[in-house]
C-alpha cells in the first residue's frame, strides 16, 4: 500500500460534549485508517501533495455522538479527494457544525 500522510492543522467540532472529545478523536483516527486502507491512496493517484483549505462535513445532528461526527468528517474528506460522498446530515434540524 502506498503511504498516505494526513495532517490536520485545525479541527473544529461543535455539538459534542467535552466528555466526548477523547472518544471522538479515537473514532476519527479509526475511521481515517479504514478509509486509507479502503482506497484513499488510489484516489490520490498522480502523486504530489494535496491541500484542502476546508472540508465541508455538514451539520452534526442533535444527539449525534462521536462516531457520527467522525464519519461526517471522513465523508467530507472522501468528497474532497473525489470519492463518493454520502449524506452529511445537512438539513434544517439545527445542531452544531462539524
How would you portray this structure in words?
- The protein has 98 residues and is mainly α.
- The chain has a domain at 14-37 and 57-83.
- It has a two-stranded antiparallel sheet with strand order 1-2.
- The protein has helices at residues 21-43, 66-80, and strands spanning 59-60, 96-97.
- The chain is elongated and about 40 Å long.
- The relative contact order is 0.24.
- α1 (21-43) packs parallel to α2 (66-80).
- The longest helix is centred in the N-terminal third of the chain and has 23 residues, at 21-43.
- It contains 2 helices and 2 strands, in the order αβαβ.
The total count of strands amounts to 2
Strand arrangement, major sheet: 1-2
Label the structural class.
mainly alpha
**SS field, number of helical segments:** 2
For the largest beta-sheet, the strand count, sense and barrel status come to: 2 strands, antiparallel
The average pLDDT score comes to 76
Overall form: elongated
Beta-strand residue percentage: under 5%
N to C succession of SSEs: HEHE
Approximately how much helix is present in the residues? 25-40%
Poorly predicted runs are: 83-96
What's the Cα radius of gyration? 14 Å
- Gap between N and C termini: 30 Å
Give me the secondary-structure topology.
Elements lengths: L20 H23 L15 E2 L5 H15 L15 E2 L1
Antiparallel strand pairs: 1-2
Helix pairs in contact: 1-2
List keywords for this structure.
single chain, 98 residues, mainly alpha
Amino acid at each position: 500500500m502506498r503511504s498516505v500522510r494526513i495532517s490536520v492543522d485545525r479541527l473544529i467540532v461543535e455539538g459534542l460534549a467535552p466528555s466526548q472529545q477523547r472518544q471522538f478523536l479515537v473514532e476519527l483516527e479509526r475511521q481515517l485508517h479504514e478509509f486509507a486502507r479502503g482506497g484513499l491512496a488510489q484516489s490520490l493517484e498522480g502523486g504530489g501533495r494535496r491541500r484542502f483549505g476546508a472540508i465541508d462535513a455538514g451539520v452534526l445532528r442533535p444527539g449525534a455522538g462521536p462516531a457520527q461526527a467522525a464519519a461526517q468528517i471522513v465523508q467530507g474528506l472522501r468528497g474532497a479527494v473525489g470519492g463518493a460522498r454520502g449524506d452529511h446530515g445537512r438539513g434544517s434540524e439545527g445542531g452544531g457544525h462539524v
